[in-house]
Amino acid sequence: MIHVLTTLVNHITFGTDEASLAAFQSMLQEVRAEGQPLGSIDFNKLIPMPQELDMRAGFVTNLGLKQYIAFMAESAITAQATLFMPDAERTAVVGAHLTKWGAVELKDPEAWALGKKAFQNLKKYGCPTWVEWSKLNWGSRDNAFNCTALDSTSDTMVFQTSDTAVPKIAAALSEKFPSQNITYHWADEKTKQHLGRMVFQGGKAIEVEIPDEPAALAQAMSAGIWRFQAGMERSVRHTQDGQKKNRHRRPER
User: Fold this and answer.
1) Which of 13, 87, 92, 103 is the most buried (most CB within 10 A)?
2) What is the pTM of this model?
3) What is d(CA 103, CA 109) in angstroms, rounded to the nearest whole number?
4) Where are the strands (E) in the chain, listed by range?
């Protein structure tokens, strides 16, 4: 089961002049998820996730990673301790060390293999799996979902994210279209809170409005800082890999 604590609705707009609307349509084509309608967005088109991180995340992987880190740490200590030992004694100590951890691997080979892969990812990318990487690089653990289908007359992209806003995605979009003022709104679809507004140009935030007090939230709502989506029946939950389920929203074990 997927547990999503909060669902945020996100809006992205360019300007209203002819050049901005043309740039918006070009953007829709560039970020469109493979095999999905216009209006969908795949965060990988803006900030690609390394393929090695597309692996099982959750309890078994975390257990294996903990074991493999302990194995590597003990291996370093053993190597240092046996550096000046006679060959026979060093062979015996190293053999005992490998036998000990070999038994750990045999007890749960799946956890060991996942832990080893996660350890290698941690060294190479600073994150063991897609969960940690997506939170760090996208701002949300999941890719976009429930994207509203758009057409050649549309001027607002609407999609949902789990738990958090994704200003890093908006900033990356702004880097691709540096001449455009890109406005990014977000809010909790149920409580109509956790809302904010940012304007980007050239990949940099030039305006930021994130009210955090009830009165400020009410004022922001009345001032139109957040425009809620109408017609969510047109939304489509898209996948990122054709027939495969969206790999960034699969259950953890």
Assistant:
1) 13
2) 0.78
3) 10
4) 7-13, 147-148, 156-162, 182-188, 196-201, 204-209, 235-236
